[in-house]
Amino acid sequence: xxxxxxxxxxxxxxxxxxxxxxxxxxxxxxxxxxxxxxxxxxxxxxxxxxxxxxxxxxxxxxxxxxxxxxxxxxxxxxxxxxxxxxxxxxxxxxxxxxxxxxxxxxxxxxxxxxxxxxxxxxxxxxxxxxxxxxxxxxxxxxxxxxxxxxxxxxxxxxxxxxxxxxxxxxxxxxxxxxxxxxxxxxxxxxxxxxxxxxxxxxxxxxxxxx
Length: 210
Known about the structure:
The chain is an alpha+beta fold.
């Protein structure tokens, strides 16, 4: 405990001496004389005349000066700290890649898109108007050919009648697509055998029947 008190007293003395040296430079007086005076003053009786002491001390208002020095040093430290503005980088901002959006987007296939053959649709003239609904191949064949033999009571045709009702068609390719075509120029679908229209050889188009 005694050692701690001595350390505190020595620290206070050193601090006071440092303040006296600072004030001596500011007010141009002898710092050693002031230190001796303060050390002697600590031994003066409490009943010492305060007016005589104030005349001798004069400018040594230690408490006020300590407060002023502390405030000045604090302001000087704040003034020395310079806030540098944040430097902006030149050029365009960097583009952020969104991986999730890229994964969601379908990948584009390379190369040229496949060329689709367009069928020119020509409306029927008054002379070429037929029934509005499309007939199947069997219906067209049955309506175009009249059979001399009567149909059986079971509404089924035998092999001879089927052979008589068949129409000769050939595989026909038009603009890269495959069709069936008879001798009259009628065009049929390869898969469903449904009539699609009539091929106009002069204009090189397929006239679609409505």
